[in-house]
Amino acid sequence: MSRFFFHHSHIYNEMNIKNYINGEFVNPVKNQWIDNYNPSIGEVYGQIPNSTEEDIELAYEAANKAFSSWSKTTLDERSSILSKIAQLIKDKLDFLAEAESKDNGKPLSLAKAVDIPRASSNFQFFANAITQFASEAHESVGLDAVNLTLRQPIGVVGCISPWNLPLYLFTWKIAPAIAAGNCVVAKPSEITPMTSYLLGEICNEAGLPKGVLNIVHGLGNSAGQAIVAHPKIKAISFTGGTSTGAHIARTAAPMFKKLSLELGGKNPNIIFADCDYNNMLETTVKSSFANQGQICLCGSRIFIEETIYEKFKQDFIKKVSQLKVGIPFDSETNIGALVSKPHLEKVKSYIAIAEEEKGKILFGGKEVKVDNAENGYYLQPTIIEVEDNQCRLNQEEIFGPIVTIMPFKTEEEALTLANDVSYGLSATVWTNNLKRTMKVSQQLQAGIVWINTWLMRDLRTPFGGVKNSGVGREGGFEALRFFTEPKNICIKY
Ligand code: NAD
């Protein structure tokens, strides 16, 4: 794959991204800009608005103006526009996947197979779900009264998303928000703005009325903060880091904003000797290193029953050593670039920490210089054997291609190790014992438990974490409940 390919083959090269406000693409009010990098070659390829509270105010005003009519559109009308957006995303799959891969560093094959199809499914799912999301009625027998519970849209809501699954997570918030009749001020990550920018064009093409969705680009502590601090934006759906989530909660608390916070994870992958070994091994490679380990659901702490520990160690190292680190656009690539230079440095710092903590690096641990992309941010998939679950490597979210492994003796010990962490997003368990499946699942402190699989999602099911992994749930009717206010009307007849 040549350097030339990265620089010159796409129409969006060197293109400046603009804010999408009231259906128009506009420059930021203060005309300040931020560089946007292509992490696979470590070079700037465009600029994005460094928006300020003035831009957020314009976006709010557009959204507020659109709300009076959008909130009164019929469910069929909304559903049909969401379906059109879903279809257009599908039609532009190749183009969007290339944009996502270039902006984020993820393998193109992953963007094509997962990220972009899922962004389309997010719209299609809520296009259908909104038509099923009924208000409730309760007859108060003996009191000659009937109670209605209306589910009304909130008004203008804020959606803020991270860089790891850019369009996937951005649309996972926007689709239910607008399906429920709200208007949105949304901010994607400043590190991966491209596909969110392209979504604006798609919404116009699908006939989404002006102002229903407004996309403002910029930094978290200015543009993001201005959304959270805006007194009239009444709900915030946020996905990102735990410390950012805490900051958002502090800003929002005095205004009693409704919050959905999907935060970090440090997910256990518990492997019992009685599992289907080959399936476990193959999936464990994915749950460890998919998207360079930059998925909040990656199983970054692997606990293995002692009796198969040595065998697993050998087989896992062998499989991982076969993964190809390379340019995202190369179809052979399994591990692309990390998202940014600062993130690469952060992830690398854990390799130094491993050495201090006497972790044993069984594989990887080194930066990779990829041909024709020597300045890109590549790191080997890395396996570290640790002795103590309290080490920083097992307690802190690394969010990169690093996993730790550790043996356990009993089911109780596995559960203690899995739960002894501040996070509680997801957990994976490998076993063919039904009784153990239920016992362990019930006791794991996690919002999502996968048994003999990983990352399988039915969009009707609740998604989210416990402990420091967040507050609230997305997915299915949970998301529609979040984006609506229930109102009780009691009628005495
Ligand atoms: P981040 O918290 O740095 O940023 C997320 C978003 O918040 C970005 O758009 C950013 O600009 C914005 N932001 C930052 N500071 C802000 C502030 N003060 N006010 C308002 N907005 C602000 O996270 P990141 O580095 O982009 O993403 C990685 C993190 O996201 C990891 O911790 C990962 O686990 C988490 N994540 C969680 C889930 C989940 O569903 N639980 C999914 C994906 C990623």
From TrEMBL:
Note the CDD domains from the entry.
ALDH_F8_HMSADH
Q: Which UniProt key words apply to this protein?
A: NAD, Oxidoreductase
Write out the transmembrane intervals: none
Aldehyde dehydrogenase domain sequence ranges: 29-489
Q: Name one GO molecular function term.
A: oxidoreductase activity, acting on the aldehyde or oxo group of donors, NAD or NADP as acceptor
Q: Where is the active site?
A: 262
What Pfam families would the database entry show? Aldedh (PF00171)
Matches recorded under InterPro entries = Ald_DH/histidinol_DH (IPR016161), Ald_DH_C (IPR016163), Ald_DH_CS_CYS (IPR016160), Ald_DH_CS_GLU (IPR029510), Ald_DH_N (IPR016162), Aldehyde_DH_dom (IPR015590)
In terms of PROSITE patterns, this protein maps to: ALDEHYDE_DEHYDR_CYS, ALDEHYDE_DEHYDR_GLU
Family named by the database record: Belongs to the aldehyde dehydrogenase family.
Name it.
Answer: Aminomuconate-semialdehyde/2-hydroxymuconate-6-semialdehyde dehydrogenase
Source organism per entry reads Tenacibaculum skagerrakense
**Organism ancestry:** Bacteria, Pseudomonadati, Bacteroidota, Flavobacteriia, Flavobacteriales
